[in-house]
Amino acid sequence: MRSLMVWLMLVTAVPCLAQFRLPKVPRLPGGGGIGIPGLDNILSEDPPLTTSFKDAVTGVRYYDDFNPRVDVAMAEMPRGLKHSFMLAPGGYEVILQSYCLNAGTHGPGRGEGYQFAPLKGSLAGVLGDIMDRSADHPEVSQHDVQALLWGVEAKTKISEMPPKLQQAAAKLLTPAQIDKLNGGALGKVPPELMEQTFVKVPAPMRRAMQARAELRNMLSEATPDFGALERVAVLSGDPPDEKGGEVVPRERWSYRPGGFFVRYFPEGYSKTRTQVFVPPDVQVVKDDRGRLVSLTDAAGNRVETEYDDAVAPATVPGDNGVSAYALAKIRFTRQNSKSPGQTEQAECTGAGWVLVGVPSGKGKPAPAAERYAGLPERYTAATAHHAELAKLIPNVRKVGQHPAPATESPEIIARMTDLASYTTGLSAAIQGGPSTKRWVTRVADLPRVAWGANLVYVGEGGANGTPVGQARPVGGDGTRLAAANVGSLGIHLLTPWAASKGSGLRSFDSSGSATPANTGRQRLGQSPRPSDDQDDAGTPEAEEGEDEDQPQEEGSDKSILDRARNAIDWIGKGMNVVNAVTDPAGTIAGQLGFGIQDQLQSSFFDWTFDTASTISQALGGDPPRSDFNLIATPEALPAASMTPQWGNIPPARAAALSALRMSLISLVANLRAGQVSVDRLGGAIQANDEQWVTQQSEALLHHKRQSGAAMVVVADRLEALLAELKAEGIQRITMSPEGYRRYQERLKGGLSPLELEAARSIGLSDAEVEAGRQRRLAYDPNEVSGDLLAQTQTAAQSLRELGERWWRLPEGAEIAK
What we know:
By secondary structure, the protein is α+β, with helices and mostly antiparallel strands. Helix content is 42%, strand content 14%. The protein has 25 helices and 23 strands. The strands form five sheets. Strands 1, 2, 4, 6, 8, 9, 10, 20 and 21 form a nine-stranded mixed β-sheet that branches. Strands 11, 12, 13, 14, 15, 16, 17 and 18 form an eight-stranded antiparallel β-sheet that branches.
């Protein structure tokens, strides 16, 4: 019996071998004759999960100090097939639910980086499916998903798990997968044999073996306590230092299949802040000496370089492949975010130099004159970078979904080496220069963005068979670049998906493992289900020296979204149609909301706010539509052709109300087009139609951007109306609970003809009108009482913030055309 238990204990150690780099478990004397059917088969099975740091081969050291601006919360982007995020070029952030994938190890450390690695092992697919499918079943708690993952990795029979976990398994796994897990599972291990068995096993393996054995025992109980499971699976404190092991900085990026750069910031093991960078298109121009003279992105940001050819270039003895060139002028240009069509420029003159060419490593540069100070150090750095690329490029080709031909690798490595050397030259030149504006540093990152686009081509450029060639020269000495037609002379370093599919969107999924270098730390898997805590995800970080036209908003996308919807919702609960103004000092006592005497027009504002709130909250939740091969466009509402009658109110207030009315019509029309796009996106996903998933995602992004612009206009006009009311001496329009109760009593008998006419003027169906009536009947009068003007001010501020967030979303490629 004891021999059998030792065998069973060692089986659980097999998954640890790859992680801890230990020798294979030897066969015990007499083990083949113990007469247990199927035991040899179990022993010969591949480990459930073998992913280790050896599989994390696409870490990008060159990007360790690269921090692209995160302008968009990834949770606001459309979701594609298998809950993937449809991403355009740019920087993103999201906090995803994450899971411990190797029990008996320490939780994430604060200073250690994690690199991407694919899930490998005999049950890697099962573990990945559990995490992926959890997004389809929000009713299954994260604790239950984690307990199920631990049970599967410990080879616990599903049939012996508690009923709650069996129910979770039935939702997250197929019947065939459950049968497989029941057939290859292990039994409980008597506690009295654990210590005896593990005495001579090395400590790292012993901890994992014990943890899995204990988990298997605990998960066979009727009601296991998750806290107890967690204490076994997640060790507190820090693991021992592994001398000689690689140290991965916390900021490390990894190349991820599909054309993405990703990095992970675990917050404990249960949620991980994930940043994703998708390199945009960049035009690169070289002169006839092979020197980079300009780089331009799609937004119009641009770096231009003029070389000082009056200064002789520096050479490297023993290496004819490289030369150093003095810089005469660097010009940085960006589009002004507050004034479309206008640009801003900054220049550095008479400073710096750039190394050009691919170093062989055989050169012996001597300390150069002051004009080329630091040449030996830069030559050494370029040599090291070239060698690093020679290792990274094959690894990216190996994991890429559509790798470029290997024959192109030398040319790509040469191009990326030049871009890295050029980046070094720019950085040195602008340090202490005349311009310290933060945007200059951002624009100076363009060559690094182009570097990343080249790496994307390595992994994905084979999809269309069009290689990324050398940039064409501008001719002469390159100083005429200001007049050069960059569009015709430069080359697009296209993202591979854009080149092959005609779209700027790529599908990013969360599969794989965030893997630490220290084997005593946990591997982390991610679910495509965002964590409930998104308070800071996607919020641009305040940066020292940020200039005034790049404002840093306070609050997160989630908090701004909630605040805007709540304020709009409050106004849309009937505040404009309740004839119960109770402020005795109000100059418009007895009138309707905003001092409107005509109930039709007052009801219009009521229904438009209600509709805007309802649609903005529902973006992403309605049933799929079968007509997903059509693109929605905003439709004119009947109210647009109606001439409003305001009654006997001051002309200035009537003008402010008319302007607000038209802006609300535009907002509702764009929101409705967005809602249709969401439903059609759902239909394309249901039909598994990748092409239309992409096109409907583009349409949704477009309509959200347009809705964002409309929100800003509504905010402006709301504030203009409030200013007019204040100028008239109206300080408050207060709603009492009693007044709202009277309103609800009237609603029980149905809407008035004017209210129905107002609802239909903005395109509401009978079902939508009735749903709105029922919502108002359900409100607590004590919760909706308050000052209409104060709530309107809050709505205006929140609408502007939300609108600016949505306006920053990337434009869909096809819609933009």
